[in-house]
Amino acid sequence: MASARLGRSIKRAPLGFGTKVSLVFFLGLAFVVTWWTFSSPSASAVSSQRSSFDDIEALPATPAPRKGKEQSRKKAHQKKPPDSLPKNENSKRTAVGSKNDKKEKEKKKGGGGGEIEQVAAAKNETSKPEGQQDEEESEEKVDVEGLEEVTDSENATDEDMEEGVDANAEDDAGEDNLKNRSKKKKKLGPLFDPKARYTWKLCSGKTGHNYIPCVDMEGGHRHHERSCPRTPITCLVSLPKDYKPPEAWPERESKIWFKNLAHPKLSEAIKTQSWLNLSGDYLFIPSEESEFKGGAQHYVSSIEEMVPDIEWGKNIRVVLDIGCTGAGFGAVLLKKDVATLSLGLMSDQTDMAQLALERGIPAVVGNLRSRRLPFPSSVFDAIHCGECGIPWHSNGGRLLLEINRVLRPGGYFITSTKHGDIDAEEGMTALLSSVCWNILAHKADEVSETNIRIYQRPTSNDVYEIRATKEPPFCRENENQDAAWYTPVKACLHKVAAAIEQRGTDWPEEWPKRLETFPEWLADSEDKLTKDHEHWKAIIDKSYLAGLGIDWSNIRNVMDMKAINGGFAAALASQKVWVMNVVPVHAPNTLPIIFERGLLGIYHDWCEPFSTYPRSYDLLHADHLFSRLKNRCKQPIVIVVEMDRILRPGGWVIIRDKLEILNPLETILRSLHWDIRMTYGKDKEGLLCAQKTTWRP
């Protein structure tokens, strides 16, 4: 009883103010700890977030239906590819969001002379990707494997790309680069405005459906050097009347639907070329005929006879063909496993480079004047200039010095001329003596009626010690030989690499061994390159070739818009395609690695149009290209416009990127009436596969 009375007396005792405050504090602290424990993600969940999208297994033949809405877009859908050119069937599934009355219109003058109308934020029309609609809908279920976390090497590559390493910056710009990198680390807004609505308009001008923005001027004339319009190009290039997709390879090499590229100057040129036969609506190029009299096969065989050390497709794999008078030289070398890139000169009004691309032969538009070619130093095994009228000896021999820069030490320079110019030959002989090139052979071929000369670049610097004159002078030792984007040609001679760890000291292995065999200067990166090769081979085999619905028999011209080490192209080496590996100018300079492996590539800045004709490519591949451009392009929409220009109707795009990029990008492609064939997302990464249609505004 006494204890009970004592307990009641204790309960009735009032609490002091300090005691009450302490009690409230501890109760609040306990609540915060409990809430934090159950609401915050675990450490394992944080560590599983990836910054890369790995390979996808082939899609099953009979997908199982599934209902539900997933905010993270963890879904994939595939549609059967059409038997003919695709029609716009998916665009009508776009949902319209909120609208505002405010409109912001800009009328701009395009490089081709046409007005461009863009509604940047008119009506704020928003489209939701499929699988994120307000109503539940059925989806196709896809079994996906191989979505592992990125390896340390992949993370390292991404970090380099985020820093925006400028491959073509001069060595003395280090302080500016550090400032720029610090600025680029700032978190920016979305690349594409998800509320933006784009109104497309056709480009106008005399060039019409053959418009090359950085080459063509108003009035039908062309620039002497690459010169892009000041106003970003946001208009769409028209299609030729009665356009038809190219024939499947190898039929397209010799049979072309002429209306795809017909224009008056090419039509006139065809009348004077016996190797081009226009029959009805088709242009035929017989395999035994070419721009070389007697055929390109005889011409190539003559070169082999003159210099037996030249073994096409073995020790000679990567070749640059300057002039592209018809691509017959490159067509013959294709059959010998030689990757020949034809450089169509901007002054060629007949557009033979466009004819080469339509045939499925690698080509690009450029010029050899006052600027360096967009290639690294010491990468081409051989350089050819057929029926060449280029004055190599003029202007202090600058053009030949540029050839000396991009030609591999020990590489071959092959020229042929119709009629000998005594003054030009004397000037060329004096220039070659000053740069110490060896004259290996000279032949007046009676069948082709050309004078063929073959020279070789020195493999050692010792030969320079015996020069009779010190002109041209040597270039500075600390000069960046790979700086090639809008870089002027310098009247200086680059020495040959001497140390074994330097690029260019050893000749690569014979093809195809060189694709997976790395020289001494890449010894430190060999494991990383091997893993990269295996990584892309798995993606190509498990996903791209079988799982996306692409008919690869109709794919010939392929572009990797952000190539790193050429792994994507290397994995496609067994397919009947060729790949243009594009290394962005502000990315790590990996283009020499790509050439070393026996693949083709070029530098480019994707904030500008690419130097090629409309409808040049059958497939575009972009691996995290857009997410690396937040710090580069003022109007990223121009990249999508350029993809539309250089991709043919019926062509495909495969885009791997962050979901915050892919979601609005899908809406933009739908506004272009492209067919979205497949989308897939997991965590923050995803894949988008789409096919361009024949739609034009």
TrEMBL record:
Membrane-spanning segments: 21-38
An annotated GO BP: methylation
A cellular component term, taken from the record's GO annotations: cytoplasm
Statement: the UniProt record of this protein carries the keyword Glycoprotein: yes
The keyword Nucleotide-binding is annotated on this UniProt entry: no
Signal peptide range in chain numbering: none
GO molecular function: methyltransferase activity
Ranges annotated as biased composition (Acidic residues): 132-175
Location(s) in or outside the cell: Endomembrane system; Membrane
Keywords: Glycoprotein, Membrane, Methyltransferase, Signal-anchor, Transferase, Transmembrane, Transmembrane helix
InterPro entries per the UniProt record, alphabetical: Put_SAM_MeTrfase, SAM-dependent_MTases_sf
Region (Disordered): 45-188
Bilayer disposition of the protein: Single-pass membrane protein; Single-pass type II membrane protein
Enzyme Commission number(s): 2.1.1.-
Biased composition (Basic and acidic residues): 99-109
PANTHER family with a match to the protein in the record: METHYLTRANSFERASE PMT28-RELATED (PTHR10108:SF1102), SAM-DEPENDENT METHYLTRANSFERASE (PTHR10108)
Protein's UniProt name: Methyltransferase
Species of origin: Musa acuminata subsp. malaccensis
Lineage: Eukaryota, Viridiplantae, Streptophyta, Embryophyta, Tracheophyta
